[in-house]
Amino acid sequence: MPTMSDVVVEISDLHVVRGGTPVLAGLDLTLDQGVVGLLGPSGCGKSTLLRSLVGVQEVRSGSVTVFGLPAGSPGLRTRVGYVTQSASVYDDLSVAENLRFFADVLGAGPEATARAVDLVELGDQRDQVVGRLSGGQRSRVSLAVALLQAPDLLVLDEPTVGLDPVLRRDLWGLFHRLADAGACVLVSSHVMDEAERCDRLLLMRAGQIIADGTPAEIKARTGTTDIESAFLSLVQS
Predict the structure, then answer these.
(1) 193: which DSSP letter?
(2) Which residue, 5, 39, 93, 122, is most buried by CB atoms nearer than 10 A?
(3) Half-sphere exposure for 213 (CA within 13 Å, toward CB)
């Protein structure tokens, strides 16, 4: 377990109800630096958990703190980056125009926009209108916006859905470079084969974390050779 000085996120007894239905019920979780995968089937509560973590989800009870502050606090604005499942950029602006706009909002300088474009490898498309880009390229523009402030915590909701294998590999390489530089990168996915790319893995089902450890630890615990089999073993046990 991380020491208190290492803790990035601390969630205690978190309860979230949506539409009268409990989505998260008494969830506890602590995160520190590294690439953490949050894997589980669609509808299990992954997005609700991520929204709670960045402070945009109404919670029934419990606490969510990030770097010692309540989630969503103004003091976290420059320390947390969040990428939703849908690209959250303007289709009628170019890549560069989107980044300049969000950089102005965030108070980031021109060097930050250049760095973000380079990180997501969109230099050749910087003058392209976003609405004319592929789905994978649009997702990378959203990621570039989240990287403008070089966040200490990067929260990514299904960032690799629909991407080709080469781009998925490249993005996971980027996530690890960010973690190696000291960030906590939390990546949600329902693609079980991405589990092996994580330093730490959280398996989620029906609003509960049913396994927490390295991929190797979870496979050893369940006596399986892959994470999908491990997940099925945990569900059926």
Answers:
(1) G
(2) 39
(3) 13
